[in-house]
Structures are given as structure tokens and as C-alpha cells.
Amino acid sequence: MTLLLLTLLGCSSDKDSAEPLAPEPLDLPADPAVQGAPVGVRTETIGGVSVEIWYPAAQAEAGGAGESIDPTVFVPQVVLDVLGPLQLPAMSTYAIRDAQLRPPVEPYPLVLFSHGFGGFRLQSVDVTTHLASRGYIVAAVDHPGRMLGDVLPCLFLPVLEGCDLSGFTDDPGPDDLSDLLDLVSGLADEGWLEGAVDLERIAVGGHSAGANTTTSFGQDQDHIAALFPMAGGAPVERDVPTLFLAGSCDSYPDLGSVTASAAGTAQAELVAISGAGHLAFSDLCELDLARFAADYLEGRDDVNVATYESLLALATDGCPGRVPQESTGCDSFLDLQTSDPIIRHYTTVFLDEALRGEGEGVQAGVYAEAELITP
After folding, report:
1. Helix, strand, coil fractions of the chain, as percent rounded to 5
2. In the chain, how many domains are there?
3. 17 in a domain, yes or no?
4. pTM to 2 decimals?
5. I need a surface site. Which of 102, 147, 223, 350 has the fewest CB within 10 A?
């Protein structure tokens, strides 16, 4: 009966015969640090490993409720069994779950993102969501061996099941990014991203250990057109536009180390943010891990003190209320409300020039707290 009605109405039961939606041009604010289009987000998997994809959403989605990320979903059950129910602050975002993809005037460039040691695919959601709002498809994958869920079981003695620090010495990132690119390529060929991704314009960025992944992966992949390592990264000999972002009060690594990496890179720019610590390039300070440690770990006789103290220092470097390490010569960290728009600005203008050939690119004098250093 349904088929008969469709025939009489002159309709087709084949969903592929539907007329494509009209392209929606991006009407972006002049300030590169300001949100552009609405943003959608979806979760995919690669062999059981989770992937997050952010994308420009249709204008009809404007005003929709952004999702709130519950970080406790990244805490393994074995840790919950020891500590009991946890309360961690939610991470807010304006990305709308499963929103309609904005039909592109031309395919969107692709950005792959790599998280740091003890992080997870959503750890820098301010940057990933922002870039999607400015007309990029952004994809991030969890890296087994250096995820938060791998590290937390290692805080105890004896270590809990699932403790995995292999990513500290053997970087899983390049292989994971290769798998991620294959996934996005498949979705762009015949999935929900069909026709929406320009696989000739690809950039890679990452934070901390993810910065090292960025430079090692970008060194070996000739089809990657731009790199933006944040708070880390090694020299890149291949002639590819590379933007190093660093904080002057970061100890993991310090600014001198990042400057040396930029100096050894064929085509490098370096932006140093005065007063920024290690986690300024992520949203992990929102988790208030210092309070988590005080509430759930301090004073326990089963905590591995050496591992705990070193990981706590890393997990809070750059966060409000924390004191920079003495070796940095800093008295306090720059507030995140100041550093966040700086990071959004420079990643956006860099990618706009490198992938789209638009704008003036990275310029000095835009923010008092940001210095463009010539390597």
C-alpha cells in the first residue's frame, strides 16, 4: 500500500533519489576567535576505539542546546570500584549532538587532533568545536596507552587492572591518526560526510604528547598540508607550514625546548603565550583535578605516591590557583579566559591561510600576551 501511494503521488521510495539540500554559505564573524556557524558532533568507532567528529551544522540548528560532557565516563570501572561514586565538574560545549550537517558550498578542509598523555579525545573541545564553527571538519581519536582511563589505574599499589603507560614510551598516535583518516575518508566517500570533506586539504594538531604525534605523523605524511603542535612537538624537516603554540610558564616542555624544535623545522612559526601553562591548550582544568586528588586520593595508603605526585603536577600545570614550577621563573599562570581566545585566534588564522589561502595568517601584535617568535 505504501509503495502504491508513493507511485500515485509521483514519489520514490529510494531515499537516495531525494534532492540534495541547497548549500549554506558560511557567514563568519571578522574576529577569528569568535564562533562562526552552529556546530554538530557525532561519535564513531574504529575497532572499538572511540572517535569524535565535529562539523559545521545547518543554520536551522542555531540556538540548539550544546551538550555537557560528563568526564566520569572516562574513569574505568575498576577505579570506581575502589573510590566509589565520583563527582567531577561537567565540561560545557556548544556542540549539538547529531545536529544536521551544514551543506557545504565546497567541501570543508579536515583537521585531525591528537590528545595528550592522560587526556582523551574531548580534552581540547574549545579548540575542536571552534574550528568546526569556522568551517572545518575536526576529528579526534582516543589513544589507548595514554588515555586518562589507562593512567588512573596506575595511581594505586598494587596497580589496578587496566594500568597502561605504554604510550609514554611508544607513541600510539601516528597509527591511530592513520586509522582515523581512513575512517573519515570512508564516511566522506559513502557515509554521512559524503561530499563534505576535502581530503586534499588536511591539517593535524595536538597537545603535549599529541603535539609530538603531530610532528612525527606530519613528518612522514606528504599529503598533510599543515601542522599545529601545542605545548610540545619535535622538529619537522619536511617543508610543511607548522605553527608551534607554547606557554612561557609551561614545564612540559619549557618554552626553550619548543623554540629549539621550531628552529629545527623547515617552515615554522612560533607563538608564545606569556604566563600560559601546560593545560592552557586543553580544557582539562575544568575537571579541577587538584580537588579530585584532595577529595579522593589524599591520605590513602594504597596510592603510589611517586606516580601520584608527578601526574598531579602535570594534570594541574596552568590551572587556576596552581603555582608554576620554580624552573619557569613565573609567579602565577595567565587566566584561561585570556589565553583561550588567543589559542582560538591563532589556530584559525593559521589554518585559514595554510588550507584555504585566505587571510593574512599569523601576525604579531594582535594580543599583548602573545609573542610571535622568529625561530
Report:
1. 35, 20, 45
2. 1
3. no
4. 0.94
5. 223
